[in-house]
Amino acid sequence: MKPFTIILVVLCAVLGFGWYKSGSGASQQADATAKQYETLSNQVAELRTKLALEQGTALQVQSNLQFIAQQRTGQLLNTSNHLIQTHLLLKTAQAGALHAQTDLQSKAAQIAVLENQCDELKQRAQTI
């Protein structure tokens, strides 16, 4: 019975040592998992901060672009108004030029009639 007791004591010692080691390994694994959790939690917080900064930057850029677009729209409206005014001035100048050309043609016709009359009067004066 003594060998049976010795085997049983050795077996209990081995099982106890194994149980102790498995508990120690589980504790180490729990510590490693806790550290990994902290690391991942810090990374998530860092990424959230970066995302918030990028969103703020994106909103600022969008606001700046909208402001620039509004400025360009105002400049285009001013340019359009200047073009319309220039077009109207050109039409007025063209109408004046057409009127002046018509007047010039009628004056040229009157001069031709008067020159013809002058020539006739000169011929009459020579004959007298």
Mean pLDDT: 88
Outline the low-pLDDT stretches: none
Helix content class:
over 70%
Order of helices and strands: H
**Quantity of strands, as a count:** 0
Assess the beta-strand content as a share of residues: under 5%
Q: How large is the radius of gyration?
A: 54 Å
Biggest pleated-sheet summary: none
Give the helix/strand class.
mainly alpha
Global shape: rod-shaped
Distance N terminus to C terminus?
A: 184 Å
Which descriptors would you attach to this protein?
128 residues, mainly alpha, rod-shaped
Per-chain topology:
Blueprint: H1 2-127
What does this structure look like?
The chain has one helix at residues 2-127. It is rod-shaped. The longest helix has 126 residues, at 2-127. It has 128 residues and is mainly α. It starts with a helix and ends with a helix.
Short description:
The protein is mainly alpha-helical and 128 residues long.
